[in-house]
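Renewal narrative, Specific Aim 1. Our central claim is that a sequence can be written position by position from structural information alone. The example that follows is taken directly from our test logs and has not been curated for this report. It begins with the structure tokens describing the chain, in the order in which they were read.
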């Protein structure tokens, strides 16, 4: 099932949480938002324990987790901000961390984590793949191996 512009809704939730938390110091209360986050994590864990849940049922659960997680992270970033004299450096460091994380995901991760277990490569949650007793099936797709299976080369090369 193809969903056009699938990324727009999580982005809107991210931006909504940013607006809610940075609008006023009265809007962020740690306890209710942490409780909401714990409930959302529990809902995702319960969802992952079921088999073959339709995407239309998964979507709101994962969106709830995105919203709750963003509310907690943005609220804590606002709550922990330094005095106004140091706020520019604080947010610059925060943005730099995001840029480094994005660079890692875009550049380093594809070069490092190309090989692996076929079950987890096709969307199976890692805990399900770990509990599966079947022997591992290594990915042998020439396109994947041709890009450079750095982690696989490091693990299988002789000393």
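The sequence written for that structure reads:
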């Amino acid at each position: 099932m193809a969903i056009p512009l699938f990324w727009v809704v999580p982005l809107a939730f991210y931006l909504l949480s940013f607006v809610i938390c940075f609008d006023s110091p009265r809007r962020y209360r740690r306890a209710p938002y942490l409780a909401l986050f714990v409930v959302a994590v529990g809902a995702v864990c319960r969802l992952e324990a079921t088999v073959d849940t339709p995407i239309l049922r998964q979507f709101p659960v994962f969106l709830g987790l995105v919203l709750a997680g963003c509310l907690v992270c943005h609220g804590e970033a606002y709550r922990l901000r330094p005095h106004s004299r140091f706020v520019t450096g604080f947010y610059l460091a925060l943005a730099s961390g995001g840029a480094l994380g994005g660079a890692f995901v875009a550049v380093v991760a594809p070069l490092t984590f190309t090989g692996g277990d076929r079950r987890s490569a096709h969307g199976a949650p890692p805990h399900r793949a770990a509990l599966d007793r079947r022997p591992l099936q290594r990915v042998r797709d020439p396109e994947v191996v041709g890009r450079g299976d750095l982690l696989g080369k490091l693990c299988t090369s002789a000393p």
